[in-house]
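Duplicate of #3305? Posting structure anyway:
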């Protein structure tokens, strides 16, 4: 943008700026270099007056011809700097927004992790309770089965003992009865047996 302004300036402005620059350089040259060896007392006063005149001419030319380009140059630079500052501030705001999003995401993921942890613990506790309940039910079933088996074995053993006792009693009766029972008693037992059946 600055290069475009130099090329659009008319040639006479560029020449005037060069002359002004030359005059400024001449003003800066020390007095002793330009003075003649045999000059009188009037020469320093004359040189000082011409310097001031040249200075005022230079200031007039700078004010007249270089003021607008310089003002425009500084305005453009100021605008460029403002744009850069705005761009940097915008970038800073975007970065801060991203940082804020990341912090929120981290907090949200932390909350999710806590909820997940609580849910896993609750599920583990519930599963533990189910396992304990299942074990209790299974132990009750096993105990009931064992109780039934014991009762069944007791009944079987009781019946076996009873059967043995009956067999033993019959055996004893068979041994003792033939001597005690006669023909009449046998007939009577036989009749009772037929009536009961």
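Output from current build:
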């Amino acid at each position: 943008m600055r290069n475009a302004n130099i090329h659009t300036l008319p040639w006479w402005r560029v020449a005037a700026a060069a002359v002004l620059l030359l005059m400024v350089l001449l003003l800066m040259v020390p007095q002793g270099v330009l003075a003649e060896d045999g000059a009188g007392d009037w020469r320093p006063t004359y040189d000082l007056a011409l310097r001031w005149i040249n200075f005022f001419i230079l200031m007039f030319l700078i004010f007249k011809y270089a003021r607008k380009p310089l003002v425009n140059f500084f305005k453009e630079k100021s605008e460029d700097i403002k744009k850069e500052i705005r761009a940097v501030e915008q970038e800073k705001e975007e970065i801060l927004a991203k940082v804020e999003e990341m912090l929120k995401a981290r907090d949200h993921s932390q909350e999710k992790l806590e909820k997940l942890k609580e849910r896993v613990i609750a599920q583990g506790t519930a599963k533990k309770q189910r396992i304990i309940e299942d074990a209790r039910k299974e132990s009750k079933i096993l105990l009931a089965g064992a109780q039934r088996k014991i009762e069944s074995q007791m009944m079987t053993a009781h019946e076996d003992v009873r059967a043995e006792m009956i067999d033993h009693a019959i055996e004893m009766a068979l041994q003792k009865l033939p001597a005690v029972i006669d023909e009449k008693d046998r007939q009577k037992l036989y009749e009772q047996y037929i009536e009961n059946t």
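Confirmed duplicate; merging threads. Residues 107 and 113 are 10 Å apart (CA to CA). The helical segments are 2-8, 11-28, 31-34, 42-180, 183-196.
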